Amino acid sequence: MSRIIAGAAGGTTLYSVPGDGTRPTTDRVKEALFSRLESYDILQDARVLDLFAGSGALGVESASRGARSVDLVELADKAAATCRSNADLVSKVLGHSRVNVHRAKAETYLMRVPADVRWDLVFIDPPYALTEGELDAVLTPLAGHLAEGAVVVLERSTRSPEPVWPAGLERFSEKKYGETTLWFAEPAQGADADADADAEAEARPEQA
Q1: Do 147 and 68 meet the contact criterion of CB atoms below 8 Å apart?
Q2: Cα(first)–Cα(last) distance of the chain, in Å?
Q3: Where are the domains of the chain?
Q4: Are β-strands 146-157 and 169-177 bridged in parallel, bridged antiparallel, or unpaired?
Q5: Which CATH number is associated with domain 2-19+26-190?
Q6: What is the pLDDT of residue 195?
Q7: Over the range 15-49, which residues count as b (16 or more CB within 10 Å of their CB) and which as e?
Q8: What is the pLDDT of residue 25?
Q9: What's the pLDDT score for residue 190?
C-alpha cells in the first residue's frame, strides 16, 4: 500500500498497479528523495514530469506538495490506468486538477512535445533492464526541455553504471539506498549560457 507522504493530500492512500509489471519506489527512498527536494526549494509551483510513471506516485506526491502541473508518462495499459485513478483521486482532494496522464513511450512523448515546453523537476524511474542506449534515447531529447535550475532525478539499480549524460545535462549528486541509486542531474552550462546566470550559479547542497 502506497500513500502520499506530505502536503495538501498527505495521508491519501494511492492505487497500486495490479500484477508484477512495475517496480514502485520504496517509501524509504521516496521519503528521503522528497526531503532532499524540499531542501532545494524546487517543489512549490514546479512544472513536473514523471517518466515511466508506474502508479504515478512520485508525480502526485509533487502535486500534493505544491507543484503547478504534473505530467505522468506511462506506456503499459494497467499502469496508465492506475495513473489516471491516482490523478483523479488527488484532484478531488486538492479541489482542482494538476495532473495530466499521457499513455506513451517516454522517448516518443519527448520527441513530440512542443519545443517550448520546459519542466522544473523530472523523475525518471525506468525498468532496471532498460539498456544504457535506451536510456540515452530518453535523456538526449529531455535535455532540451529543462527550465533554468531544473533538477532531474534518475532511479537505477546500484549495479548499473553511471548514466552517460548527454550534452546539456550534468550530474551534481548521487545517493545509494541498498539496491537503488538515485542520480541527480541539472542543465549543463553551455558555451552560449547567459553570463549573469553563470556568475550567479551555485552548487546544490549535499545531504546525507
Answers
A1: no
A2: 27
A3: 2-19+26-190
A4: unpaired
A5: 3.40.50.150
A6: 31
A7: bbbeeeebbbbeeebbebbbebbeeeebbeebbbb
A8: 84
A9: 63
